[in-house]
């Protein structure tokens, strides 16, 4: 008897650059899992950094009665934490975008030239959305 509720297994394929071996199902699952883990880990890091930043802002006051060096140190610490929050958020956005592309079946294609990003590059840097050549050109600008 056939189970009419059984979901058909969906086969995901990812593009490869010229000369690369095709993706195996295990490699595809590994990249998907790494992207999901990145999103979870980075979400937690952003939340933690934001909480620390909020604490720094709540502890600060207008500086009345405080030594100028203390005020300067507090401002520096706040600026550093704000930079960490921004950086963590940018990396989280990249991971979320890559996972969204993966789930939409559009993962692995360069968003600039439309060519395959390349299996080797994606295995090293799963959040990549540009092929090596387009990334090089973007960094020259």
Provide keyphrases for this structure.
mainly alpha, 141 residues, elongated, Four Helix Bundle (Hemerythrin (Met), subunit A), 4 helices
What CATH architecture label applies? Up-down Bundle
Sum up the overall morphology in one term. elongated
Low-confidence stretches: none
- The helix fraction, in percent, is 55-70%
The number of strands is 0
What fraction strand? under 5%
- At the first level of CATH, the class is Mainly Alpha
Relevant CATH superfamily: DksA, coiled-coil domain
Q: How many angstroms does the end-to-end distance come to? A: 62 Å
Q: How many domains, in number, for the residues?
A: 1
- Structural class call reads mainly alpha
CATH topology: Four Helix Bundle (Hemerythrin (Met), subunit A)
**What is the multimeric organization of the chains shown?**
single chain
- SS summary, helix count: 4
- Rg over CA atoms: 22 Å
Order of helices and strands: HHHH
What is the average per-residue confidence, as pLDDT, rounded to a whole number? Answer: 85
User: How does the major sheet shape up?
Assistant: none
């Amino acid at each position: 008897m056939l189970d009419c509720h059984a979901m058909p297994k969906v086969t995901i394929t990812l593009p490869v650059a010229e000369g690369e071996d095709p993706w195996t199902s295990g490699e595809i699952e590994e990249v998907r899992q790494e992207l999901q883990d990145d999103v979870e880990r980075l979400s937690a890091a952003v939340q933690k950094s934001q909480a620390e930043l909020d604490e720094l802002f709540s502890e600060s006051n207008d500086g009345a009665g405080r030594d100028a060096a203390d005020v300067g140190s507090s401002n520096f610490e706040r600026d550093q934490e704000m930079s960490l929050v921004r950086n963590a958020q940018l990396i989280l956005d990249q991971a979320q975008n890559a996972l969204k592309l993966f789930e939409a079946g559009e993962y692995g294609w360069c968003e600039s030239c439309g060519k395959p990003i390349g299996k080797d590059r994606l295995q090293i840097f799963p959040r990549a959305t540009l092929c090596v050549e387009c990334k090089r050109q973007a960094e020259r600008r």
